[in-house]
Design brief:
single chain; about 110 residues; alpha+beta; 4 helices; DUF3088; DUF3088 domain-containing protein
Length: about 110
């Protein structure tokens, strides 16, 4: 895998435990804002949406079973960031909205949070 992959939850999703509600992920929403605001800088980023229920097979295949929490940035082979929160199979991982946004600023040149 050479491209960075960003896994997010869908912008609106259901939880079988609360079927009468529609949810959004408060950790994914700030990243969605950056994706929308800085499309030109983030166009090379592979953004994928994983369903809410676990197991999240596509995430597991790339980041391991212990790294299913979203949002998650998986860096391409050989790419590094000072904001890494983990590693799996030779790929650096960045979990959580603040570390991901900081990594995107470092790697793609989007503005940093003030």
């Amino acid at each position: 895998m050479s491209k960075d992959i960003l896994f997010l939850l869908p912008k609106a999703f259901k939880d079988a435990k609360q079927p009468d509600k529609i949810f959004y992920c408060p950790h994914c929403l700030p990243i969605e804002g950056a994706l929308s605001s800085y499309k030109d800088k983030l166009r090379e980023l592979d953004v994928r949406y994983a369903d809410f229920p676990r197991p999240r097979e596509e995430v597991i295949a790339i980041a391991g079973e212990d790294n299913q929490s979203l949002p998650l940035l998986v860096l391409g082979k050989g790419r590094t960031t000072s904001h890494k929160t983990g590693e799996y199979n030779g790929h650096q991982l960045v979990a959580g909205s603040a570390p991901i946004l900081a990594a995107l600023a470092e790697l793609y040149g989007i503005p940093v949070s003030h």
